[in-house]
Amino acid sequence: MPEQGGGQQAGGRQATWDQFGPEYDWPPYVGAPRSYVIASSGRSGSHFLAHLLFQTGQLGSPLEYLHPRHFARWQSLTGKTARADVLQAVRARRTGPTGWFGIKAHWSQFASVAQEPDLVRDLNLSHYIRLTRQDTVAQAVSMVIAKQSGAWISYHDAVAAPRYDFAAIEQDYGALQKEDAAWAQYFAQHSIRPFNLTYEQLNRSPETCLAEIGAFLGMEALVVGGAFAPSAQTGPQRQATALNAQWCEQFRQEAAQRGIL
User: Fold this and answer.
1) How many CB atoms within 10 Å of residue 172?
2) How far apart are alpha carbons 111 and 39 in whole angstroms?
3) Secondary structure element (H or E) that encloses residue 195, with its range
């Protein structure tokens, strides 16, 4: 069965999400699409950004195709095995009508692709949207809550109640810093100038962010619900609650006492 996520939308209506389903497909694209990468790390707002870009109807369906579990599902769906062949097949159905194809990836997913320059060239991965989060403590807290609850996106129902764990937050805090550093190193080594965007900017003014991304990609102004936009798509919602703020404050206090922050 396709992977689906369940959650409550506004008004109590149950939401389902099938990232492998036809609602994210576009008419078959023939040719060599222009490609971009949402270069991100966990809990940075990348899922929200990807759906905003999808809902403009101009930039394809930039989902997490390089996630190992998702990639295995795409192998099954396309009947192909080699990564290049699978991604070419995905591009044919997930490239938007304007010829743009997008991939959302954390560094841990992209690292092996980065070691294959021929694949990077063949996929025409020429544009990168670098999405970071200024408050890494809040990012790490969000990561631990998602791991413990099982609710990675707003479509997911929690399967367990999260419990504060200083060591887990500290571990994810360090891992996120390393992931950000790895992206920065990759860009420096390959003389890539990404479009830099923060989680905080995206939450504050998504419309402005879309307009700036459009300019970066040489597009007309991007807006959700444009001429090619899919109908009746409801995007993921922000998940942070008072619990996140409570854990952030507690972690900062304990980290300061231990001389970590």
Assistant:
1) 23
2) 11
3) strand 195-198
Domain spans of the chain, in order of start: 31-257
What single-letter DSSP state applies at residue 29?
Answer: P
Q: Which amino acid appears at position 191 of this protein?
A: S
Q: For residue 66, give the nearest of 122, 105, 100, 17 by alpha carbon.
A: 105
DSSP class of residue 96 equals: -
CA distance 240 to 101: 30
Report whether CATH 3.20.20.80 matches the domain 31-257: no
Q: How many Å apart are CA 166 and CA 144, to the nearest integer?
A: 10
CA distance 27 to 250: 50
Rounded distance between C-alpha atoms, residue 53 and residue 129, angstroms: 11
One-letter amino acid identity for 25?
D
- DSSP reduced 3-state for 27: coil
CA distances from 226 to 26, 109, 196 (A): 15, 31, 24
Cα torsion through 177, 182, 184, 188, rounded to 10: 160
Mean pLDDT by 10 residues, the chain (261 residues): 35 59 94 95 92 93 96 97 96 95 97 95 95 96 90 63 95 96 98 97 94 92 74 57 92 94 80
* SS3 state of residue 6: strand
